[in-house]
Design brief:
By secondary structure, this protein is an alpha+beta fold. It folds into 2 domains: 1-19 and 207-237, no CATH class; 20-204, Jelly Rolls (Sandwich). It is 16% helix and 41% strand. The protein has 2 helices and 13 strands; from the N terminus they run αβββββββββββββα. The strands form 2 sheets. Strands 1, 2, 4, 5, 7, 10, 11 and 13 form an 8-stranded antiparallel beta sheet that branches. Strands 3-6-12-8-9 form a 5-stranded antiparallel beta sheet, with no helix packed on it. Helix 1 (2-15) packs antiparallel against helix 2. The longest helix is centred in the C-terminal third of the chain and has 25 residues, at 212-236. One calcium ion (CA) binds at residues 103, 109-110, 112, 183, 185, 190.
Length: 237
C-alpha cells in the first residue's frame, strides 16, 4: 500500500513540470535606450559592444518608430547577456534594415554579406537593393521594401523580421552582427540597422525538470522506504 502511494505521488510530480513559462530577458525598440526593458527573467549583466554602431534616426517605416541601432562601418555589433537564470530555450526576435545600395553577392561592387552569429549558429544574408540578383534573407520575413529610412535617397531600403526559438541552457548569450564581404563601399553607400530586439527565456514553470535517470532513482528510493517500513513492522511484531 505504501509503495503504491509513493508511485502515485511520483506520477503527479512527473506531470506538473511539463508546463513551461516564458519571460522577457531584454527587449528594446531603441527609441529611448539600448536597454529599454530588462527582465523580469533573471540575468546578471546586459551589454552592447557597439563596433561603430549608435542609435540613429529611422524614418519612412512606422514599424521601426523613429530610431534604430545603425552600423555604418564594417565593425561588429554584439548584444550580450551574462548570468542568465536556469532556462531550457531562448526566443530571439529582431528586425534588420538593409540600408542603401546593397549589391547582393553577384552585383557590383560585391559581395555584400550580413554575418549574424548566435548560439553557435552562423548566418549569411544579403539583399539586392542596388545591383546583383541574389536576395537571401534566410528565415526572415520582409516587412518593408522600397521605403527610404532616411539615408541615401537614391536607394530603397529593405527591412526583414526574424524570430528564432532554440534550445539553450548556457549562462551567457551573444548576438553578433557585422557587414562582411569585399564589396563594402562605406557606410554612406551601404549600411545596416537593428530594431525591435527581444530576447525571452523559456523555463519549466514547475521548477527544475529531473532527468529520467533521476526519476528512476527517486521511484526506486520510494520503493526502498516502503521496504524498510515493512521490515520495521515485522521486527516489532
Ligand atoms: Ca525603433
Ligand atoms: Ca557593395
Amino acid at each position: 500500500m505504501k509503495l503504491h502511494g509513493a508511485l502515485a505521488s511520483a506520477a503527479l510530480l512527473v506531470a506538473a513540470p511539463g508546463l513551461a513559462a516564458e519571460q522577457n530577458v531584454w527587449s528594446t525598440t531603441f527609441e529611448t535606450s539600448e536597454f529599454e526593458t530588462p527582465g523580469p527573467f533573471p540575468f546578471g549583466i546586459l551589454a552592447v559592444s557597439y563596433g561603430g554602431s549608435s542609435i540613429q534616426s529611422a524614418v519612412g517605416f512606422p514599424g521601426m518608430g523613429t530610431k534604430m541601432l545603425r552600423n555604418d562601418t564594417s565593425g561588429t555589433t554584439t548584444l550580450q547577456v551574462f548570468g542568465l537564470g536556469a532556462h531550457t530555450h531562448l526566443r530571439l526576435k529582431f528586425d534588420i534594415a538593409f540600408i542603401d545600395s546593397w549589391d547582393s553577392v553577384n552585383g557590383t561592387v560585391a559581395p555584400d554579406i550580413l554575418f549574424v552569429d548566435f548560439a553557435g549558429q552562423s548566418y549569411q544574408w544579403t539583399v539586392n537593393n542596388a545591383s546583383g540578383t541574389v536576395f537571401d534573407v534566410g528565415p526572415g520575413t520582409v516587412i518593408s521594401t522600397g521605403t527610404n529610412l532616411g539615408y541615401n535617397s537614391v536607394w530603397p531600403d529593405t527591412v526583414v523580421r526574424y524570430e528564432f526559438l532554440f534550445p539553450h541552457t548556457a549562462l551567457n548569450f551573444s548576438l553578433a552582427i557585422r557587414f562582411g564581404g569585399a564589396g563594402f563601399q562605406g557606410g554612406l553607400d551601404e549600411s545596416w540597422g537593428i530594431d525591435n530586439f527581444a530576447l525571452s527565456a523559456i523555463f519549466p514553470s514547475g521548477g527544475v525538470i529531473p532527468e529520467p535517470a533521476t526519476w528512476a532513482m527517486l521511484i526506486a528510493g520510494f520503493g526502498l522506504v516502503g521496504g524498510m517500513a515493512r521490515r520495521r513492522r515485522l521486527a516489532r511484531a
